[in-house]
Design brief:
Shape: globular
Number of helices: 9
Number of domains: 1
Radius of gyration: 20 Å
Largest sheet: 4 strands, mixed
Structural class: alpha+beta
Order of helices and strands: HHHEEHHHHHEEH
Helix content: 40-55%
Distance between the termini: 27 Å
Amino acid sequence: MISLLSRTILRDQFYKHQVYVKRVTSNKGKKTPGVDGVLWKGARAKMQAVKSLRRHGYKPLPLRRIYIPKKNGKKRPLSIPSMKYRAMQALYKLALSAVAETTADPNSYGFREGRGCADAIAQAFNALSKPNSATWVLEADIKGCFDNISLKWMEDNIPIDRKILSKWLRAGYVENGITYPSKKGTPQGGLCKALHNPPYAKKVIMQSIRKIYNNSKVSC
């Protein structure tokens, strides 16, 4: 729950923008620039950033695509947003988080503030330790989850301004100096993934399980 002081600060646009500029310049990605190569270093650059965070006329830059080595020798694509892109998403994340928490599955623990592996383990124990508990546990992985999420589904189901959401989702990415359009998926380097992935993932999982097991009663 947001404290009274926090609510008071966030009602003022200027202070609200300061909060989110501080957030993106304090996290672990603060030294990783987007496609424009810009990092908000120093008081002057941060103050200019605060003044630049306006919704009117905002157009996000495409993301910078790099590849991260995986243990199996393959490479995983990572799309890095600009500092302004991150700050603008953070502005919307606070308002959307409250909605996401009230509609999210109570047994979802990934990408949820205040939840972690220990909570998931405890819930699994509670669910499976009873005499009439389920006898089977399905472990599954959604291949390329972030890379294949439907853009239209997100536009139709994430409850924020559709224009600004579409700008983020369809900003495209730059790889080797060439700009490519966004056709599906969402960047793993983006802040909004934490909000839209859990409900989408559960929907896909439940539909797939029911199809495989002929509409049997299942829970997730």
